[in-house]
TrEMBL record:
It comes from Paenibacillus sepulcri. GO terms for molecular function: (R,S)-4-hydroxy-2-oxoglutarate aldolase activity; 2-dehydro-3-deoxy-phosphogluconate aldolase activity. Pathway: Carbohydrate acid metabolism. InterPro entries: Aldlse_KDPG_KHG, Aldolase_TIM. Transmembrane segments: none annotated. Homotrimer. The lineage of its organism: Bacteria, Bacillati, Bacillota, Bacilli, Bacillales. It is an enzyme of class 4 (lyase). This is Bifunctional 2-keto-4-hydroxyglutarate aldolase/2-keto-3-deoxy-6-phosphogluconate aldolase. NCBIfam families: eda, PRK06552.1. It comes from the Bacteria.
Length: 222
């Protein structure tokens, strides 16, 4: 039942912060700022050096089960290329797994342990294969190669697919993606680039708040 609850929480929160950095400490600070700003679903990519350390520390600080709002967050792993990486991240506390592509063995591993898995797909064929493997949320990636109209095109033949665009989602088009039927959106460098350049990581919390406001406005409008 926990998997179902996590999927519902991800869909309810609607915005996933995709975090990359130069060290575990940097992405932990990014995550803390995102959570403070209102983004409660955090994806730590495996391209971060010693990413598992960051996932472990964040998973010890936050939980999807807590009743304390200040401690609520869902910590997951991104750029999981294979089942070995996914399992290591799960053992470190990751509650969901995201990959840039569809790797059947990774999906099987995550299904075995009842952990939500969100593989990257670009075509109807890949999306169909993901659904047949038991994937609940498909990551449309790279999202910047498409417009929000792509979701309508996908949902023509496969209306049952839950689509999460990642890459190229911005404050300007987030509303269009949600109105088009996206179950959630993934936000990457637009959240953190200005903070990294300036060294002022408080800017991430402010940016996160803008994304949450945009998401809620789009949902309310729908």
């Amino acid at each position: 039942m926990k998997k179902i609850k996590l999927l519902q929480q991800v869909a309810q929160e609607g915005v996933v912060a995709v975090l990359r950095g130069e060290s575990p400490d940097e992405v932990i600070e990014m995550a803390n700022q995102c959570i403070a700003g209102g983004i409660k679903v955090i994806e730590i990519t495996m391209t971060v050096p010693f990413a598992l350390k960051a996932i472990e520390k964040l998973a010890m600080s936050y939980s999807s089960d807590t009743k304390d709002p200040s401690k609520f967050a869902i910590i997951g792993v991104g750029t999981a290329l294979d089942p070995e990486t996914a399992r290591a991240a799960i053992l470190s506390g990751a509650e969901f797994v995201v990959g840039p592509s569809l790797n059947p063995a990774t999906v099987t591993l995550c299904n075995r342990y009842r952990v939500p898995v969100m593989p990257g797909c670009m075509t109807i064929k890949e999306i169909q294969e993901a659904l047949e493997l038991g994937v609940d949320i498909v990551k449309l990636f790279p999202g910047n190669l498409y417009s929000p109209a792509m979701i309508k095109a996908i949902k023509g033949p496969v209306p049952q697919a839950n689509i999460m665009p990642t890459g190229g989602v911005s404050l300007d088009n987030l509303g269009d993606w949600i109105k088009a039927g996206a179950v959630a959106v993934g936000i990457g460098s637009d959240l953190t680039s200005e903070a990294v350049k300036s060294g002022n990581y408080d800017l991430i919390a402010s940016r996160a708040g803008q994304y949450i406001e945009a998401y809620r406005s789009a949902k309310n409008a729908g």
